[in-house]
Structures are given as structure tokens and as C-alpha cells.
């Protein structure tokens, strides 16, 4: 009996310690979600500024010519489709990597079957999602390390832009997509995709509808080509930055959800162990009392 009681007490202590760790991880995940959400929110005004700049540049007659050169929309032998998929390198995130990988695989396969000449090229942020995409038979170009804090997002996006632009300039990719998980609530997310390139007529028409905030119409000063290219690169930078920040927020939301489930399971386990311990303790006390009573009755009878 004593050994069993000791084992139960050891299990209760271990579960209590684990519950403390889970609570700490919950707090860290909740704090990280807030930081990444603020990061995404802070991009709003800057994103609008870039959109207004692009809206002004598309009024120029030579906009289409410059964008065609930039995004390589000229005729080519192969239809190259490139994708950037944001995942996670850390554990305790539930189905986070599986969800975005399966979503990206499905969408990219659909694009691949559109034409027999379509060729897929994929970059992955995170080794785990990279491995899953590679196992699905996708043509993987490179894997990037997932940022561990907000300050590292800018560095990552810069690396993606430099290496992807160098690679795409050689292959003349026609379409570029980004895949990531977007947070829907404090503990839920949804895999989504966004097409970054090419900047087609539909995209230009959407920009034209953005109203200018003042009565003074803008005027482009300096070289149009440099202005357009700079604005487009800023547009792509913000889009990738936002995708990464939202992916990290979703990752922590998934971790928060996993920790909430773990905490609930631990509480149920503790409740069960406590009941078993109290029942065992009561049975031990009853057995000891019965032994005392039996001894007393034996002594009384012998007299």
C-alpha cells in the first residue's frame, strides 16, 4: 500500500510540475501573438503609402513597359511557377506545418496540371515544412531559418528577396506565390495563398481605384523606372514581411491552443490521481482501524 501511495504522489508531483511548464509556455505564446499582431498592424500605414505611390505611377504611359521588364512576362518556353511557403521549426504547434504544407501542395499541383510545360520551384521557411514538401515530390530550391523574434523578420525577408530575385532573373518565372497560415482568432488559423507576381492588369485596376487623400494630385519626380522598381520591391517586401509575421502569430496561436489542450488534460489527470490517492489513503486508514478493532476484540475475548 505504501509503495502504491508513494507512486501516486510522485505522479501527482510530476503532473503539477508539468502543468507549471505548460502555463509558462501559454503565457509566452500569448505574449508573442500580441507582438506579431502589433507588427502586422503597424504595416498598415506604410502599406497604404506604397499603394498610393504605385497608384500614382500607373498613371504613367510607360508603367506597363517597366513592369513587364521587371516581372518577366515575355513569352518563354516554360511556364515557371515559384512559391514561398512559411512554416515552423519548433515543436508543440499541433498540425501547423502539416496544414500549410498540404494546402500548398494541393494548390501547386492544381497550377501544375494547368499546363504540361508548368515547372514548380519552391522555397520553404522552416526545415519541417521543407521536408514535407520535398516528400510530396515538389522541386525545392532552398530552406530558410524561421525567425525567432520580430527583429529577425527583416533579415529573413531581405534574404528571400535577394536570393529569389537572383534565381527568378535566370529562370524568368511568370508567377510567384506565397503560402502561409493567417490567424483567424486567438487560437485558430487558416492557410491562405497570395500571388505576388506578375503585376497584371487586374492588379493595376485595383490600385487605380484607391482615392488620393488630398486635392493636390501627385507628380513623379526623377527617373520613372527607378521609382517604379523601388515601389514594387517595397510592395513585395511588405507582402513577405506581413506573411512571415502572420505565420509566426499563427504558429504561436497553434502553440497556445496545444498548451490549452495539454493543460486541460493535465487537470483531468490530476483530478483522477487525486481521487485515486484519497481513495487509497482512506482504504489504508480503514484497514489500520480494522486491525486495531480486531486486536482490541481479541484482547477482550481472551480476558
Shape, per Cα inertia axes: elongated
Structural class: alpha/beta
> What kind of sheet is the major sheet?
5 strands, mixed
> Mean of the pLDDT scores?
80
The N- to C-terminal Cα distance equals 33 Å
Query: Roughly what fraction of the amino acids lie in strands?
Result: 5-15%
The unreliable regions are 65-76
Task: State the helix count.
Answer: 7
How large, in whole angstroms, is the Cα Rg?
30 Å
Helicity level: 55-70%
Query: For the record, what CATH class applies?
Result: Alpha Beta
CATH architecture descriptor text: 3-Layer(aba) Sandwich
So what's the oligomer here?
Answer: single chain
Q: Could you give the order of the helices and strands? A: HHEHEHEHEEHH
Q: How would you portray this structure in words?
A:
With 303 residues, the chain is of the alpha/beta class. The protein has one domain (27-258): ATP synthase, F1 complex, gamma subunit (Pyruvate Kinase, Chain: A, domain 1). The protein is built from seven helices and five strands. It has helices spanning 2-57, 63-71, 96-112, 127-135, 151-171, 201-208, 224-302; strands spanning 79-86, 118-125, 140-144, 175-185, 188-197. The protein has a five-stranded mixed sheet with strand order 3-2-1-4-5, sandwiched between helices. Strand 1, helix 3 and strand 2 (118-125) form a beta-alpha-beta unit. Helix 1 packs antiparallel against helix 7 and helix 3 packs across helix 4. The longest helix is centred in the C-terminal third of the chain and has 79 residues, at 224-302. It is elongated and about 120 Å long. The model is unreliable at 65-76 (pLDDT under 50).
Amino acid at each position: 500500500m505504501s509503495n502504491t501511495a508513494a507512486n501516486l504522489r510522485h505522479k501527482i508531483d510530476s503532473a503539477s510540475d508539468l502543468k507549471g511548464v505548460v502555463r509558462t509556455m501559454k503565457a509566452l505564446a500569448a505574449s508573442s501573438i500580441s507582438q506579431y499582431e502589433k507588427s502586422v498592424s503597424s504595416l498598415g500605414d506604410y502599406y497604404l503609402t506604397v499603394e498610393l505611390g504605385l497608384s500614382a505611377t500607373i498613371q504613367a504611359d510607360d508603367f506597363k513597359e517597366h513592369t513587364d521588364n521587371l516581372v518577366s512576362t515575355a513569352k518563354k518556353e516554360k511556364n515557371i511557377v515559384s512559391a514561398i511557403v512559411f512554416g515552423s521549426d519548433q515543436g508543440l504547434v499541433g498540425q501547423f506545418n502539416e496544414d500549410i504544407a498540404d494546402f500548398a501542395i494541393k494548390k501547386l499541383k492544381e497550377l501544375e496540371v494547368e499546363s504540361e510545360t508548368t515547372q514548380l520551384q519552391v522555397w520553404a521557411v522552416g526545415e519541417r515544412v521543407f521536408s514535407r514538401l520535398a516528400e510530396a515530390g515538389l522541386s525545392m530550391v532552398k530552406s530558410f531559418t524561421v525567425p525567432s523574434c520580430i527583429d529577425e523578420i527583416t533579415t529573413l525577408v531581405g534574404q528571400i528577396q535577394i536570393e529569389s530575385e537572383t534565381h527568378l532573373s535566370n529562370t524568368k518565372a511568370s508567377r510567384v506565390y506565397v503560402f502561409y497560415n493567417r490567424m483567424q482568432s486567438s487560437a485558430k488559423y487558416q492557410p491562405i495563398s497570395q500571388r505576388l507576381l506578375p503585376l497584371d492588369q487586374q492588379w493595376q485596376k485595383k490600385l487605380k481605384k484607391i482615392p488620393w487623400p488630398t486635392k493636390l494630385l501627385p507628380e513623379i519626380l526623377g527617373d520613372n523606372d527607378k521609382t517604379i522598381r523601388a515601389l514594387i520591391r517595397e510592395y513585395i517586401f511588405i507582402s513577405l514581411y506581413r506573411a512571415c509575421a502572420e505565420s509566426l502569430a499563427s504558429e504561436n496561436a497553434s502553440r497556445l491552443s496545444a498548451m490549452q489542450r495539454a493543460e486541460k488534460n493535465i487537470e483531468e489527470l490530476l483530478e483522477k490521481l487525486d481521487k485515486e490517492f484519497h481513495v487509497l489513503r482512506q482504504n489504508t486508514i480503514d484497514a489500520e482501524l480494522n486491525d486495531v478493532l480486531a486486536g482490541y476484540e481479541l484482547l477482550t475475548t481472551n480476558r
